[in-house]
Design goal:
The protein has 2 domains: 53 residues; 172 residues. It has 2 helices and 9 strands. The protein has an 8-stranded antiparallel beta barrel. Strand 1 and strand 2 form a beta hairpin.
Length: 237
């Protein structure tokens, strides 16, 4: 009886410790520090040189630290530009069973002055990419949408992307509706352009949170194994 009681006590201690670890993880996940924002996207190849065939579907993601500040800002006549450089800026694409990735650079354009009488001021855009090796980049355009706070990196994309190319009779830049494009060029002859079909937020725990959650669940598992072993010993007695 003494041995069984002690084993059960160990299980209770492990369970309490695991609960405390999970609670600590949740506290650490509070928005009191930097948070990595992750967005999933889907795309479809619409132009191809020596790359993936037209119509090939792509799934990928991009991410960045929501507390990043631009390393350079460029006030302009028609809009302001914020340029970012950080290892937390990442972009990846999964296509035909292969994964390509890059990042490190982002640019935000927040327009404020019409180009002409017939052209609205709001043709805001975000670009994320990598120009240090194979070229990869994604651009999201949100004209007539209030989604940028000056030249800060956006925390959400509160609009539905229109799938396709849309000639703009006003100024020819094709930015009449929210849209997106993805490009890739490995500088060896393989490359493609793709239209972005959707962008959605991906809520994921941060690394520290994952670690504590794993430890916590491991503790719960250990407690359950101890209790099952003790119950089996009693049944066989």
């Amino acid at each position: 009886m003494r041995e069984g009681y002690h084993s059960s006590g160990d299980g209770m201690k492990a369970a309490k410790w695991a609960s405390a670890a999970i609670a600590g993880a949740m506290m650490m996940a509070a928005p009191s520090h930097a948070k990595i924002l992750v967005f999933n996207y889907s795309a479809r190849v619409d132009q191809s040189g020596q790359g993936a065939p037209v119509g090939t579907l792509i799934a990928g993601s991009f991410s960045y630290d929501n507390n990043l500040q631009p390393h350079a800002s460029y006030p302009g006549t028609y809009g302001d530009v914020g340029a970012y450089q950080s290892p937390t800026i990442r972009l990846s694409a999964n296509i035909s069973g292969s994964k390509i990735s890059g990042g490190g650079t982002a640019t935000v354009f927040d327009s404020h002055t019409p180009y002409s009488v017939n052209t609205p001021a709001d043709e805001d855009s975000l670009f994320i990419g990598d120009f240090t090796g194979p070229l990869i980049g994604i651009s999201i355009y949100g004209p007539n949408e209030n989604w940028l706070n000056n030249t800060n990196l956006p925390s959400a994309f509160p609009f539905t992307l229109t799938q396709g190319h849309f000639p703009d009779p006003r100024d020819g830049d094709g930015l009449m509706v929210p849209a997106g494009e993805l490009f890739y060029n490995d500088l060896k002859g393989y490359g493609f352009n793709a239209v972005v079909l959707s962008v959605t937020s991906a809520a994921v725990p941060e690394p520290a949170t994952w670690s504590l959650l794993i430890i916590g669940f491991g503790g719960i598992g250990a407690a359950m194994r101890r209790r099952m072993k003790h119950a089996g010993a009693l049944a066989g007695a």
